[in-house]
Amino acid sequence: MSESRYTPVLLLACLLAPVNIFVIGDFMGAGIRFPLVLYQHTIYGTSWIPIWQEVNYVATGLIGGRSGLAILVWALATLLVLAAFAAWIARWPEGERRGVALLLAGAGACSLLAAFAHYGPLLHGQAGFCVPVGLPIVIAVAWFVWRGEGKEKGEDENTSPDIS
Fold first, then answer.
1. How many whole angstroms separate alpha carbon 24 and alpha carbon 72?
2. Sequence-distant (≥ 6) Cβ neighbours of residue 130 within 8 angstroms
3. What are the extents of the domains in the chain?
4. HSE (side-chain half, CA atoms, 13 Å) at 20
5. What pTM was computed for the model?
6. What is the CA 62 to chain-centroid distance, rounded?
7. Tell me: the pLDDT tens digits for 92-125?
8. Are 110 and 76 in contact (CB under 8 A)?
């Protein structure tokens, strides 16, 4: 089957799959971060916070510092996934996918940077810890889309001529 059949499903998976599972502080709470929404359960209750509300919290000054930076980088990652979906729709007739793959790889890098910004380089610190479970999915989808375009156009892995 053609790569183009799987691409919209994989892009949708990048938007709907959980990307981080985290624990807040000394087990005061835990949650799952999806690209478009944050679910967290703390000693104060359960919350579903959409990404635009988190950005609003940063813009109004309710959240700042490393957490605010992490939210903004996370929002950038979400925008890159949405841009990849839009680029796939715009370029669907031509069959070009390399730009989509680069946008997805950028989203994966931004989500990892957001986790680093919030939890530190070892993904563990005073704010708690996180496990970026969805990052391999985003990177794998980017790789699949990148590799799929070359196969659709009939390109080979080794394009150099034989010198004999």
1. 19
2. 20, 21, 22, 23, 33, 115, 118, 119, 123
3. 3-150
4. 31
5. 0.83
6. 24
7. 667 677 889 999 999 999 999 999 999 999 999 8
8. yes
Six-digit token pair at 106? 């950028």
63-88 pLDDT, tens digit per residue, is 999 999 999 999 999 999 999 989 88
For residue 17 the two structure tokens come to: 């799959």
What pLDDT score was predicted for residue 33?
A: 94
Strand partners, 38: 33, 49
Q: What angle do CA 89, 112, 68 make, to 5 degrees?
A: 100
Cross-strand partners of 125: 128
Whole-Å CA distances, 14 to 42, 70, 77: 26, 19, 11
Q: Cβ(20)–Cβ(37) under 8 Å?
A: no
Tell me if the domain spanning 3-150 has CATH number 1.25.40: no
* Per-residue pLDDT at 153 exceeds 80: no
- Strand ordering across the sheet containing 45-50: 45-50, 37-42, 29-33, 20-24, 128-131, 124-125
Burial of 113 (0-12, 13-18, 19+ CB in 10 A): middle
